[in-house]
Amino acid sequence: MQEIRDLIETLRRSPRILSEFVNTIPEDKLDLRRGESFWTVAEHISHLAQVQPMLLERFERFMNEDRPEFVPYTPGKAKEEPDTPPRMTMTFALDQFACYREKQLLLLEKADDRTWKKTATHPEYESYSFYILARHLLMHDYWHMYRMEELWLTRDAYLTKLE
Question: Where are the domains positioned within the chain?
Fold first, then answer.
């Protein structure tokens, strides 16, 4: 149970860490595109805000369905989606991220042991559960934060090129 409490506490801190981090980035760096297939820092922030409703819905499905079946979400792959996330204002994006995170945390905190162990079907993963989704949420937050820092500070020769 300590592992779950630690996970929830870390997820609770993400909005403040993200907000404080974003506020250190100079305005002129937010929309700088470092390469043809690279997202900008602002697009990463917007993406973090935009996916939170979908992630909340996944937690709700775990709470309400015996064995939910999920479909993969890959940004920019659906016909109606642009290749890059639509840019939000930073204030709005950070507010939306924090608002949805609070809703997610309310569900996580009221989940019982059975829910934390509940499994689902997801074609991308060999194993998928309520716990894995919560951990995935954490890893997703910090992967994007790391990428934003890299896009902001890393010299071109050392910048990670993603496919």
Answer: 2-158
d(CA 30, CA 11) in angstroms, rounded, equals 24
pTM score:
0.93
Radius of gyration (Cα) for the chain, nearest Å? 17
Instruction: Among 1.10.10.10, 1.20.120.450, 1.10.510.10, 3.40.50.300, name the CATH number for the domain at 2-158.
Output: 1.20.120.450
Q: How many CA atoms lie within 13 A of 123 on its CB side?
A: 5
Q: Say how far apart CA 26 and CA 38 lie, in whole Å.
A: 18
Residues 6+ apart with CB under 8 A from 24: none
pLDDT 10s digits, 10-68? 999 999 999 999 999 999 999 999 988 899 999 999 999 999 999 999 999 999 999 99
